Amino acid sequence: xxxxxxxxxxxxxxxxxxxxxxxxxxxxxxxxxxxxxxxxxxxxxxxxxxxxxxxxxxxxxxxxxxxxxxxxxxxxxxxxxxxxxxxxxxxxxxxxxxxxxxxxxxxxxxxxxxxxxxxxxxxxxxxxxxxxxxxxxxxxxxxxxxxxxxxxxxxxxxxxxxxxxxxxxxxxxxxxxxxxxxxxxxxxxxxxxxxxxxxxxxxxxxxxxxxxxxxxxxxxxxxxxxxxxxxxxxxxxxxxxxxxxxxxxxxxxxxxxxxxxxxxxxxxx
Length: 269
Prior knowledge:
Elements: E1 11-15, H1 23-31, E2 34-40, H2 46-63, E3 69-72, E4 77-80, E5 83-86, H3 96-107, E6 112-115, H4 121-133, E7 140-144, H5 147-151, H6 153-159, E8 162-166, H7 167-170, H8 179-193, E9 197-200, H9 215-226, E10 231-234, H10 236-239, H11 244-268
Helix pairs in contact: 1-2, 1-11, 4-6, 6-8, 9-11
């Protein structure tokens, strides 16, 4: 994942899971410009993740492309009726499970590590030391999904290699009506710092069940890109949904259209 100062196509990050585990499905997703694969370590076994990694690399090699792999650490989350959310009782952000998962990820030579529930820059520094101690220099993506992280955002951006606007859990911490401006603010700060930024969560959520997204979802993705996102991410849509290929193809179409807008704005400068 590279920071884009020009009009290069915004990268599409797709979460790999049961819906996208077949080689045929994943090959078609790559053909529709899936540029980065995310593995969510809140789910799955090491054998399953190792299988995904092997298959992604085989498909990338055949296609003559580089498909970076993000290992997304689960962090201190707990199950709720509405899904997972931050476990406020946890005294650490990097859990023992995260440490075991990280060791596995380093063995598999993943390209990025995404850190969930970042609250302070020192947690990024701590994770970086763990990675270095495992003999790697793997870049870190800080997921912004807690209110406390917003108050320390410039410092977190400074010590991170990339940022993810994780709107799902962020919506549990701040009023929903504040998410759009918060997203725009985070993207703006990342652009000023020349750090890549991913906008994620519920971007085409209806495509988990339906082959066509809502008009509101298309608009959401378009403006995430037009506002400067370097990448946009699919979660349930590609990991568990009924239409993973169609979801990536729709992202591809929206990104192409948004890039035309972005180019027009640059040409006006």
